[in-house]
Prior knowledge:
Blueprint: E1 2-4, H1 10-15, E2 21-25, H2 28-40, E3 48-52, E4 65-68, H3 75-84, E5 88-92, E6 102-109, E7 112-118
Amino acid sequence: MAHLGSGDGRAVLLASLYAPAVGLERDPALVAFSRAQALALGLDLGRARFLAADFLTVDLSPYELLFIRPDRAVGSLVDRLKEAYRGRLLVYGPHSAGTGLKALAEFSLGLGRAGLFEL
């Protein structure tokens, strides 16, 4: 699993309890913070990895599942993914995952909604 725009790393830290997870974040300060949080919690940095990278330019093919909690519509991301990615996208929040995606599931997560899509 890769979290696109992982911010402070919370979702990756939680996911890493169950499976290897990677956070892709452009802000090096947030990457450093996330790594420090993982160490402070005693988590294995091999299972909870954080990379300073722009997810719009990095190779996403190694990941079976991408997770994003977008702060705006994800149309440009979906357009890029359609060209270069053949996996699943989990979108959490009020923003549409875009057109042309096959919806696999929709469900509640806490106070929000999430959708699982296949590209």
